[in-house]
């Protein structure tokens, strides 16, 4: 077999495997999809959330701030962590009590407005794009 045939065979088998897993692991409801049907232990869920929060971008940028500003840069780290904890403690209980999975869904149901949902989505997109641009600053400097 030549390399091209092996490549097509490998990609085809991988694609078939992914499709098989997708059909096998289908979730039956929104609750099952977003929160695994409530079957994840809260400590494991908290550790997964913390790992997601401590992404490479925030870890590297905070280490860079502390390296650049010295101990004064740790103020940013405390604010970053404190803000996350406040958000988790003040927002998460309302989302859970309301049965919402996303902030735009909660805002839409709370204010009975599809416009409020669209505004919330736009705000989240702006925040996400700002985060991505900030984390890829070195890449953007190389392009321009």
Notes on the protein architecture:
This protein has 144 residues and is an all-alpha fold. The protein has 3 domains: 1-39; 41-99, no CATH class; 102-144. The chain is built from 8 helices and no strands. It has helices at 3-24, 30-35, 42-53, 56-69, 74-98, 103-111, 114-135, 137-143. Helix 6 runs antiparallel to helix 7. The longest helix has 25 residues, at 74-98. The termini are far apart. The mean pLDDT is 83.
Short key terms for the protein model shown above:
single chain; 144 residues; mainly alpha; 3 domains; 81% helix
Could you provide a short overview of the structure?
The chain contains 8 helices and no strands.
What is the topology?
Elements: H1 3-24, H2 30-35, H3 42-53, H4 56-69, H5 74-98, H6 103-111, H7 114-135, H8 137-143
Secondary-structure content class: mainly alpha
Helix content: over 70%
Oligomer: single chain
**Integer count of domains:** 3
**Major sheet description:** none
Order of helices and strands: HHHHHHHH
Number of strands: 0
